[in-house]
């Protein structure tokens, strides 16, 4: 009788791949999203495939090998993708230095692309957010199963608390808490950075109306339950949330006022832009929006200042003065 042996793996684990697994396990204790951990592994694996000769240990990754690997990796990729991969490898080598596996971090010898700061993309039109909320708050009978309380909550959490898409999906019912007048929403932010965002009475009332409407639809609601659900009561997913926001824009007839490619992020940018217009400083914007860098928050203030200067320059009296000069 022929003995059957299990299939052998295509490649044996190397010291380097085992260290990558250890690095990701260490990162997991910070409670990043599954998407973030997957991005780390993808960045590390893809650059590793471009390293020649194929490295088996960190000692094989000299600055010259890394520079060549990144050059090949960057050939058909956007600067943002290359910069993210550089950051992943920098974090990996920082981990190896801390663990005493290597003496130093060679990533300083690998150039990192300079990224152009993205300009904020808020909704266009002074009263567009208010128009959007008013239209969506009314049940649209053309919808298969209208749920205005939920739709308004999604928009309000982005417009009045500046939440990202992933942060909205991660919210639990109990995330909104606090005494009257001191209500806050506890957010699991990007990169595993938690933050607490104060909410006004208006947004608090929107949350309460939504939770009550959900009880009517599905019965008991527990604080540990996901906050946002679909019309069947299942947790809302990324695609469903994106579709919901697009449909709200269509119903309100403001599609031409939404910057291309922004969608939900346009609501978050509107929140940040209005903070800057109302006098918030970069540090306050950074804390409220969960930015990792103060420079990102400063963008909103600089754009607002440019808009103010443009408004002054367009003033008819100023135009006359320029003509007289």
UniProtKB/TrEMBL annotation:
Pfam families: Phage_int_SAM_1 (PF02899), Phage_integrase (PF00589). GO terms for molecular function: DNA binding. Residues 14-97 form the Core-binding (CB) domain. GO terms for biological process: DNA integration; DNA recombination. Residues 118-313 form the Tyr recombinase domain. Keywords: DNA integration, DNA recombination, DNA-binding. Belongs to the 'phage' integrase family. PANTHER family: INTEGRASE_RECOMBINASE PROTEIN MJ0367-RELATED (PTHR30349:SF41), PHAGE INTEGRASE-RELATED (PTHR30349). This is Integrase. It comes from Actinoplanes siamensis.
């Amino acid at each position: 009788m022929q003995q059957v042996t299990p299939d052998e793996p295509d490649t044996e684990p190397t010291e380097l791949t085992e260290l990558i697994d250890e690095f990701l396990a260490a990162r997991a204790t910070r409670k990043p999203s599954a998407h973030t951990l997957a991005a780390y592994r993808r960045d590390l694996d893809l650059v590793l495939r471009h390293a020649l000769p194929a490295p088996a240990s960190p000692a094989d990754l000299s600055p010259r090998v890394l520079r060549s690997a990144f050059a090949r990796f960057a050939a058909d990729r956007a600067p943002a993708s290359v910069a993210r991969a550089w950051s992943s490898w920098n974090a990996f080598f920082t981990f190896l230095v801390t663990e005493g596996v290597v003496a130093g971090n060679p990533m300083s010898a690998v150039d990192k692309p300079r990224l152009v700061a993205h300009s904020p993309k808020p909704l266009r039109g002074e009263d567009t957010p208010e128009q959007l909320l008013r239209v969506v708050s009314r049940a649209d009978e053309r919808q298969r199963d209208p749920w205005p309380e939920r739709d308004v909550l999604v928009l309000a959490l982005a417009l009045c608390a500046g939440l990202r898409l992933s942060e909205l999906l991660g919210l639990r019912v109990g995330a909104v808490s606090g005494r009257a007048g001191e209500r806050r929403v506890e957010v699991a932010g990007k990169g595993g950075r938690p933050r607490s965002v104060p909410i006004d009475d208006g947004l608090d009332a929107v949350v309460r109306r939504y939770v009550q409407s959900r009880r009517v639809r599905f019965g008991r609601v527990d604080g540990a339950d996901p906050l946002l659900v679909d019309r069947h009561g299942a947790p809302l997913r990324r695609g469903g949330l994106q579709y919901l926001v697009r449909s709200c824009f269509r119903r309100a007839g403001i599609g031409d006022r939404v910057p291309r490619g922004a969608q939900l992020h346009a609501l978050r940018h509107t929140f940040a832009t209005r903070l800057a217009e109302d006098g918030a400083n970069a540090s306050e914007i950074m804390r409220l929006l969960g930015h990792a860098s103060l420079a990102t928050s400063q963008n909103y203030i600089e754009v607002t200042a440019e808009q103010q200067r443009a408004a002054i320059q367009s003033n008819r009296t100023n135009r006359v003065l320029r003509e007289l000069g």
